[in-house]
Amino acid sequence: MNDISIRKVGNAGRITLQRPQSLNAMTYEMACRIEAALEGWTNEPAVKLIIFDALGDRAFCSGGDIAELYETGTRGDYAYGQTFWADEYRLNYKIFNYSKPIISFLQGFTMGGGVGIGCHGSHRIVGDSSQIAMPECGIGLIPDVGGSFMLALSPGRLGEYLGVTAARMNASDAIFAGFADKYISESKWPQLIEQLEISGDADQLTQWETSPPSGPLQGLMQDIDRHFNGASLGDILITLKAENSEFARTTLMRMHLNSPLSMACTIETLNRLRGPSLTLEKALDLEYRFTARSMEHGDFLEGIRAAIIDKDRKPKWQFSNGNVPSTAVSKMLMPLGKLRLKLRGKGMKIGFIGLGNMGAPMASNLANAGHVVTGFDIAGTIAAGVTIATNAIEASKGQDIVITMLPDGAILRNVAAKIIPVMRKGATLIDCSTVDVESARAVAADAIIGKILFVDAPVSGGISGASAGTLTFMAGGSANAFDIANPLFEIMGQKAVHCGDSGAGQAAKICNNMILGTTMIATCEAFALADKLGLNRQKMFDVVSTSSGNSWTMNSYCPAPGIGPVSPADNEYKPGFAAELMLKDLGLSQKAAETVDADTPMGARALELYRQFVEDEGGKGMDFSAMLPRFSKRSRS
Ligand code: NAD
Predict the structure, then answer these.
(1) CATH 3.90.226.10 region(s) of the chain?
(2) How many CB atoms lie within 10 A of CB 431?
(3) Superfamily for domain range 509-633
(4) What integer pLDDT is reported at residue 158 of this predicted model?
(5) DSSP 424
(6) Residue 356 C-alpha to ligand 1 middle, in angstroms?
(7) 598 CB neighbour count, 10 Å cutoff
(8) Nearest C-alpha to atom 7 of ligand 1 is from which residue?
(9) Which residues line ligand 1 (CB under 6 A)?
């Protein structure tokens, strides 16, 4: 028998876990197959809802299949586990955000990885045999698969209690704690599932729902809140040990079995998550920091050894209870940098409009990272790995994300007016061009009407940064839109700053480029002066690049041919960043300065010089660093 059955029945997408002999423990392959099925059913109108269930009466799913993780981890192969968890969390996230109802029937044990599959859907059904728990601290992990999200949302300090004791919840407890929605007698499930398959209507669940028999948790809340409101594991243990009650004794006994490091990190995780900025994405990110390190630095391998390999149930944890240094907690939960969890990491459908000097390498980097990129450029340019569409509309239809990289605001508005109406509702438009703040805000307003998200995200770093994937993105828009765009920024760049609401990215960009334009002029005129003073250009570079006159224009984009890193000066000043684009940007900053009455004399002078260069002195079509030969030719008069 297959471990999992995936099929369509009537109006339902049906997913049945069928490893009852292993309590339906989830393997990596099962998780991948579920993800692929959900992906395929997203745009299938015949599938109106998804039903998850499982064979056997002992468990919906008792957790992830951890034997394989142990085998790879003890060989020193931590990458396998990291990929397993990252892919599993991505699936949990997909279930939570799925556009159609997901109904799960949770009989018997639903634990750990089973919670990740069964408790993130829109309708979570429990019955008399249901027992839900997050037992990860017992094997040296922390509550993961998005469990920390539900724990952080549960009433009072219940999350801390459930997380560190691994206490099991019955139907009523699970509804109280936010892990389930409806109690329906298990004898009725087969008939209910049949009706759901026929109707495709999740609303009918309310007719079947009844009140569950009560559970113990609500009655324990006073004790739980009193003992679990400490800031650290140590605080919690102090209050529990100070009290001679049945609750304190049982709780301490349960905690005694678990990894102290895991429990301390669970408390810290919940402290960090609680509050208005809590999202599932944030919870998964924090969980992954721990799990990604758990084999090498945590107690995970020892926890599995004791639980399922040697079965001695005597794990030798790294720290004793109440004795976990805060530095050990910080070490497990500190950011992972480039290795961080990427929930929208692979296989997104991306449209890319404007495959010029910047756009083409950016689009190729996205394709190289495993995304499906369809591009269009009015000049017929192409980009490696990118499928070319016949027009902007074709490049935008049905995409998760559309990116524009165009010359100016007028062209952006024009393209946006064509593509927003055909983009999928809920998709995201990211404009990386440098344009005026008003154009960015106008497109943002149109995006709201079109029910799509919008981020203005101009870049810095030039074509070398676009090719190397080291751009800096400065972004404006909602936090949600930024979070969606950020994984793509991480591929195309090395840094992304969320600067504020719509237009804030462009505001940051024009200020940056006003500095860039004036600095390039200063660098070029200094080289021309140095020439006339008889100073060798290389010596000039050697001094200035490490002295107080250093700048990006000197150190990274030196306007003197043959000096410093390779730049457009070494390619006869072919752009690079064209002088007319710098003229455009300086115009944008002056226009913005006028609007808000800011005094910007250096920016105004730079605008005048670039206008003269581009319009009267043959600078059009040359790189903006070609100011150096211009100054070299001139005298003071
Ligand atoms: P580019 O001129 O090389 O590329 C722009 C592309 O847009 C061209 O290939 C053009 O054919 C295409 N295009 C124009 N109208 C179009 C339309 N209606 N539909 C489809 N495609 C269209 O310019 P670039 O250097 O790639 O710069 C793009 C943007 O990035 C600009 O806003 C620029 O200010 C900004 N930028 C450039 C640099 C740089 O170093 N080049 C650095 C930072 C920011």
Answers:
(1) 4-333
(2) 31
(3) N-(1-d-carboxylethyl)-l-norvaline Dehydrogenase; domain 2 (1.10.1040.10)
(4) 98
(5) P
(6) 5
(7) 12
(8) 354
(9) 353-359, 376-379, 381, 392, 405-407, 411, 415, 433-434, 459, 462-463, 576-577, 581
In this structure, which amino acid lies at residue 522? A
Strand partners, 471: 493
DSSP helix, strand, coil percent of the chain (3-state; round to 5) = 50, 15, 35
Which pLDDT tens digit goes with each residue over 318-375?
A: 998 778 999 999 999 998 876 888 876 567 889 999 999 999 999 999 998 878 899 9
Among residues 509, 539, 620, 633, which one is catalytic?
Answer: 509
DSSP 175-232: HHHTS--EE--GGGHHHHHHHHHHH--GGGHHHH-BPPPP-SHHHHHHHHHHHS-SSS
In the chain, CATH 3.40.50.720 covers 345-502
Q: 264-320: per-residue pLDDT in tens?
A: 999 999 999 998 878 899 999 999 999 999 999 999 999 999 998 999 989 999 998
CA distance 362 to 467: 7
CATH number of 4-333: 3.90.226.10
Q: Cβ of 479: how many Cβ atoms within 10 Å?
A: 11
Amino acid at 68: E
pLDDT of res. 346: 63
**What's the DSSP call for residue 434?**
-
What CA–CA distance (Å, rounded) separates 84 from 72?
11
Q: Letter for the amino acid at 565?
A: P
Residue to mutate (ligand 1; options 378, 419, 516; most atoms within 8 A of CB): 378
CA angle 601, 606, 610 (to 5 degrees): 150
Among left, alpha and beta (phi > 0; psi -120 to 50; other), residue 416 is: alpha
Q: Phi/psi of residue 521, each to 5°?
A: -60, -45
DSSP, collapsed to helix, strand or coil, labels residue 534 as: coil
Structure tokens at 556: 């990274």
Handedness of CA 491, 497, 498, 501 (dihedral sign): negative
Q: What stretch(es) of the chain map to CATH 1.10.1040.10?
A: 509-633
Burial class (CB in 10 A: 0-12, 13-18, 19+), 99: exposed
Annotated catalytic residue 338: no
Residue type, 348: M
Under-50 pLDDT residues of the chain:
none
Domain 345-502 has CATH 3.40.50.720: yes
Q: For atom 12 of ligand 1, which residue has the closest CA?
A: 354
